[in-house]
Specification:
37% helix; binds 2'-deoxyguanosine-5'-triphosphate; alpha/beta; 24% strand; 259 residues; three-stranded antiparallel β-sheet
Amino acid sequence: SLTTVGLEMINVSASWDEGIVELFEKIKRENKANGHLTGDDGLFFTNLYVTPVLKSINLRLEEGMMLAVAGSTGSGKSSLLMMILGELVPSEGKIKHSGRVSYSPQTSWIMPGTIRDNILFGLTYDEYRYTSIIRACQLEEDFDLLPDKDKTPIAEGGVTLSGGQRARICLARAVYKDADLYLLDAPFTHLDIATEKEIFDKCVCKLMASKTRVVVTCKLEHLKRADRIILLHNGDCYFYGTFSELQAQRPDFSSLLLG
Ligand code: DGT
């Protein structure tokens, strides 16, 4: 086909604790050189510490598709994003994407400066792009209530933002950056249901319609609108496919989303 791949993972596995194995191997080599240890003592540490965080993950998104990453707490959703970012290096398998990634972490962060500085984050101000994004992220009404609107300083000496405002500023920052792949880790934390629904629809679905998106979310409404869903359970791929396939193949899936 003529479609371009936005993101592909082929048989990818990873664990967070490989540093410990490497360290142990180094100690073992040194001890062996000094005549202190025999060869097999490392197995104890290997078995104890290395539990894969993601196991044999396969997925393929065409450019412009939205992937919903779901699963209970600790199932590996954030780790999957870390792997795409290159922060977590796969022990096996291949990851392909075009390279320009924008990432919105689970915990929102604000740097000293104005709200606008926090969204542009060093990029040039494009009024049309900026306005569409702050509207889609429901930030316009918030700005209207501030003394200098989006030019109001935040962080030290500035206004205090609510958790929901911080979350929406961080989402706006990630969306403002021009990228081929957008990774949004639980972008709706601290938002009420109505605001979440609006932002998911206006920003993630409509404004970003042509973008390849990976969104960590367990909301049924979001899974329904995603092009593909990956449901993780203890680092295993419990399901990968479309929403109708999910309903057909895993009728009990909602029990995994509640955690
Ligand atoms: P959440 O955020 O509670 O819904 O959980 P998930 O599904 O995002 O899970 P994740 O990927 O944060 O955690 C999966 C496992 O990986 C868990 O045992 C903690 C571990 N882990 C996560 N991030 C890191 C990290 O930065 N360093 C290390 N060493 N381990 C991590």
